[in-house]
Amino acid sequence: MAQFSLLRPAPLLARLIFFLALALLLLFFDQRDQSFKRGWLLAVVYPIQAAAQAPEQLWLDAQDGLRSNRSLHEENQRMKQALELVKPKLVRLRALEQENRRLQDLLDAARRMPGRTRMARVVGASHDASTHMLTVDLGSRDGVFVGQGVIAASGIVGQVVRIGPFSSQVALLTDAGQSLPAQVLRTRKNVLVNGNGNPVYLSIPFLPHNADLRKGDVILSSGLGGVFPKGLPIGQVVSIRVGKGTAFSEVRVRPWVQMDRLEEVLLAWAPQPGAQAGSAAEGPAS
């Protein structure tokens, strides 16, 4: 009996430990239950809260969009106004660049001439059925004389036919009264090039059918007559047609110089003894 009574406290201690563990377990699950309840409550309330705030958010987004569109429109208008202000300057800059290029080309042409040259500006033009004239701003006070040769950067333009104190008239190669001794570059054959009133083509008269001339042949000044030095470009043969009832061919030559686009030209003087090519090239009168 005494042995049995010594073993009885053990179940009491076990029960105490069991109930203590149970209490801790219940406390733990209670905390988890509270977290679960709070999470479930948030999940239920969030859609309602979002739906309540949606109109306000849409209004704010719309205001932001309107402000952005207004800003873009205002910026676009400012850029358009700035472009309108810059356009005239861009046009002027482009014109200056083109003028500079033309003047540089004329200067290069002047350097290749054997005698003195002087630049003149085209201040007028007259074109009718047969007469093709330019007026330039140099005259007798500048030493210009009747019969003087006039060239452009790309070739021969024509001759001075009338002069005044401050200006002169130049008959273009295409004028019906103009005729110029020339030479075919490929064959070195001398020919005559005439103006015929056609603003686009020159002609070579009295060319026999059997003459050695081809489409594409380049025509240069021959140097005969003393008006122009030898080797200046005149034009290029663009067509050769056998004339009906005649012993000669009809030859068309397109001038190298675009006569309707001239703004500046060079007046040429015969070289003086001992002068170098292009050594006395001058600008226009001031």
Short précis:
With 286 residues, this protein is an alpha+beta fold. Helices cover 38% and strands 28% of the residues. Strand 10 and strand 11 (248-255) form a beta hairpin.
Search tags:
Thrombin, subunit H, 12 strands, 286 residues, alpha+beta
**Rg measurement, Å:** 49 Å
- Please mark out the parts with pLDDT under 50 across 5 or more consecutive residues, or reply none: 1-7
From the 3D structure, determine the CATH topology of the largest domain: Thrombin, subunit H
Number of helical segments with 4 or more residues: 2
Share of helix, binned: 25-40%
The span between the termini is 149 Å
What class, by secondary structure content?
alpha+beta
Main pleated sheet: 6 strands, antiparallel, barrel
Going by CATH, the homologous superfamily of the largest domain would be Rod shape-determining protein MreC, domain 1
CATH architecture of the largest domain: Beta Barrel
In total, how many domains does the architecture comprise?
A: 2
Strand content: 25-35%
**What is the approximate shape?**
elongated
The number of E-state strands comes to 12
**CATH class categorisation of the largest domain:** Mainly Beta
User: How confident is the prediction overall: mean pLDDT?
Assistant: 81
What strand line-up does the widest sheet have?
Answer: 1-2-5-4-3-12
Keywords: Cell shape, Membrane, Transmembrane, Transmembrane helix
Transmembrane segments: 12-29
Pfam families: MreC (PF04085)
Protein name: Cell shape-determining protein MreC
